[in-house]
Design brief:
heterodimer; A: alpha/beta; Fumarylacetoacetate hydrolase, domain 2; 5-stranded mixed beta sheet; 12 strands; B: alpha+beta; 6-stranded mixed beta sheet; 5 helices; 13 strands; 17% helix; globular; acetylpyruvate hydrolase activity (chain A); Fumarylacetoacetase_C_sf (chain A); metal-binding (chain A); Fumarylacetoacetase-like C-terminal domain-containing protein (chain A)
Chain lengths: 224, 224
């Protein structure tokens, strides 16, 4: 029967995951949301929330009409081979590529239910992902500039060197507890302050290595 | 290149999710941890954490030697067709089947940071799943008994009728925020109190409908 075979496929095949890290930039800030968090910590984003930002007419970020969202811009990386207990100095052999991404958080749900990260961050369209950049094309992932503009005005500008947990550290910390599988994606956190965006806004995300624009995408924010 | 095709598969295909709900059974116990949570809230468990508990030599639940874990016993369900905004009264149309499962939580990580649910609940072997039971074979999922024994002594005995958010409500709530895809699983929470388990323990989980044993599995708890 259909359902039993679907169940078996779940049990026996790889279903990749997307892992995010909260507060991986700057220990202290005046933003109340960020100050509530002490140390960086990890969370999952469902693959159903991925928005392919590489499409020529990408879909919009869709949000509740009465709400606003936090538009974080992040460096992401993809795991190239399955591994567990990965040593920090082996990190490069597990990274298949990098990408520019966003992690959208529903500010209204976050305020009402701060523990409910599944609803805050797991909504459809809340994980826009840009194109894959191969490691040979990204000399140093810890020396990239992330820029976010909202409606043509600069909102965030930060350097990936400011990360508290580096890429190698994140791979080590996560892989002690869980197998990282080929195709898994890890978002490495966002420089602050992201502020808020609402329906009608347009966001533009860019990632630079020095003056070299590695990737860029623009998305509209619309009502559900 | 290999990496780009892996990346495209992740973006372009379904990668099922497992959604859990915390504190979905009334607090009858003095367990401090449970007292600190307000309303039920949702989280994700990665598919990499799944153990197939139906195998004759199932993998053990692995815990760090100086760690204890919380063994919650739960009714799980699998989504039969992809949907968003599921109406409560149509709930049966979206369930392909049910299963007995455990949601294991690492206490050491939980105490370090109660928000860090990815490391607390996302570890390898921390999501044991039982046999798939077709929806047609379960008359009333809100009248099932869940029993957990640890080292042959009763630990938990509860009825799924005690759920705070029942299945139609869970489907409606989750699908209002995110698309539920065919094959996605939802774990509906655990009766209390689960207490703790340690390396060297032996668990037996059972699910009954009246006197009829629907499923049962036993697992060892061993050091990582």
């Amino acid at each position: 029967m259909l359902s039993a075979s679907v169940f078996n496929k779940i049990i026996s095949k790889t279903h990749n995951k997307v892992i995010g890290v909260a507060k991986n930039y700057v220990p202290q800030t005046s933003d109340i949301v960020y100050n509530r968090i002490k140390n960086p910590y990890f969370f999952f984003k469902p693959n159903s929330s991925i928005l392919d930002a590489t499409e020529s007419n990408p879909k919009p970020i869709k949000i509740d009409s009465e709400g606003d969202v936090i538009p974080e811009i992040e460096l992401g990386f993809m795991i190239s081979k399955t591994g567990k207990h990965i040593k920090e100095d082996e990190w490069q052999s597990y990274v298949g590529g990098y990408f520019l991404a966003m992690d959208i958080t529903d500010a209204k749900v976050l305020q009402k239910e701060p523990m409910n990260l599944a609803f805050c961050k797991g909504q459809d369209s809340f994980t826009p992902i840009g194109k894959l950049l191969l490691p040979k094309d990204v000399e140093d992932p810890h020396d990239l500039t992330l820029k976010l503009e909202v409606n043509g005005s600069p909102r965030i500008e930060g350097k990936t060197g400011e990360m508290i947990y580096s890429v190698s550290k994140m791979i080590r910390m996560l892989s002690i507890y869980m197998t990282l599988e080929q195709g898994d994606m890890i978002l490495t956190g966002s420089p602050i302050s992201a502020g808020r965006v609402k329906p009608g806004d347009q966001v533009k995300a860019q990632m630079f290595a020095e003056d070299d624009l590695l990737d860029e995408f623009s998305l509209n924010v619309e009502v559900l | 290149m290999l990496s780009t095709s892996i990346f495209n598969k992740v973006i372009g295909k379904t990668h099922n999710k497992i959604v859990g709900v915390a504190k979905n059974y009334a607090v009858k116990s003095s367990d401090e941890f449970y007292q600190t949570i307000g309303s039920p809230f949702y989280f994700f468990k990665p598919c990499s954490g799944v153990i197939n508990a139906t195998l004759p030599h199932a993998e053990p639940i692995r815990v760090d030697s100086h760690n204890e874990v919380i063994p919650e016993i739960e009714l799980g369900l699998m989504i039969s067709k992809t949907a968003k905004n599921i109406k409560e009264r149509r709930w049966r149309d979206y369930i392909g089947g049910y299963f007995l499962c455990l949601d294991i939580t690492d206490v050491g990580e939980l105490e370090k940071d109660p928000q860090a649910l990815a490391l607390c609940k996302g570890q390898d072997t921390h999501t044991p799943l039982g046999n798939f039971i077709h929806a047609a074979d379960i008359d009333d999922p809100h009248n099932l008994t869940l029993n957990l024994e640890v080292n042959n002594k009763p630990r938990i005995s509860g009825n799924t009728g005690e759920m705070i958010y029942r299945i139609p409500k869970i489907l409606s709530m989750v699908s209002s925020y995110m698309t539920l895809e065919q094959g996605d699983m939802i774990l509906t929470g655990s009766p209390l109190p689960p207490g703790r388990i340690y390396s060297g323990d032996h668990l037996t989980a059972q699910m009954f409908s009246g006197d009829e044993l629907l499923d049962e599995f036993s697992l060892e708890v061993e050091e990582s």
